[in-house]
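Supplementary notes for students who missed Thursday's class. We covered one full example, reproduced here. Read the sequence, then the structure, then the short commentary at the end.
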Amino acid sequence: MQDLRLTELMFKSLKQDSNLATAEDWEAAGDYANLIRFFPHAFNCYRNAMQLDQREDLINKVDQTLEKLTNVLEYVPANCKEMVDKFRFDNALDPGEWLQVINTLLKTSTDESNLEAIRFAFGMGIYCALRSGLDVDPMNQNLIPFLEAKEEDETQLKLNKVNLEGVKKIIAIGDNVTLGLQNNWEIRPKETFHQMWKSSLKDASEIEIINNGISGAGILDAVLYVGRDVIQYRPDLVIINYGINDTWLGPNALLGFEVLLEYIIKFLRLNQIKIILVGPIPHVPEACPAAQRPNANIDTSELQIDAWNKICKQIALRNKIAFADTCSKFPIVPEQRMKLFANGFNQPNLEGHKLIKSAIDEVVIDS
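Structure (token representation):
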């Protein structure tokens, strides 16, 4: 799946000049952006088309895409939902709002009934503050007493398997790895790890798998859009893979990553959804060109995946879910890993996706 002309036009939409193309071309570029889940670009393209042609169906596409972007945080812990509902449509990523939620929860109660909401609010606060360039050391220090202190034995991970009996619909959520992004913004759906894995199953023809990966996404996106990307589809199984984009926020995001990822997993399990947690792949951040780095100021030595992978393992152990360890499949030597990425640093090529699939194969019972 690749259309260089529409891809170029999709990115031109950021200039917000509708006269750069015809209404028909803007709409086509919007449809293309929507198909590959670049929703902000789709919105800009549709809006440009609407400015040139006030057709009702174009207006509907603008409204529908805006709904995908702005209807966030539908599912949050009950003890903070009323507070979050007051600002989630206006500025869901305002660190000041989350700090108020944290302070209110801490003043209300720190007992077991409030722990989930406290952890969640800290996680959101840390991520939103980091995105705004703020110091999160105080929040991290205050969050630590509310975290699980016991470290689980990682050798027990091999016991966590997922049985595919009764599984008919699967959602894959994650970043550019899940999406299957290649060079020049090309996407090859059939060469993604989850599609290849699904095709190898005994009853593959009876199982539907939907790719809801988003390039550039992190665990914050999963929390914001779990209603849009997961719940509305009523899946039997969800494959989760985040981490390589989260690393660019730096080590201070680790605790926030932990509580937000665990919240999503617990929420899905409460909805009787099976889970395969795919560990973050060991990317090669030092090979990422400077112009493409989400954080130009960070030392790439701080972007290694080990700490993030360890968090995923501990969450899988605590929640007794299947964990596909991609780190165990990719070569340790960076120069060898680079050959498994289409862009040399974080977009797996076909061979890279095969390795991720092999990690999933080991934790699945295909009955």
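Commentary. The longest helix spans residues 112-131. The chain is about 45% helix and 5% strand. If anything here is unclear, bring it to office hours.
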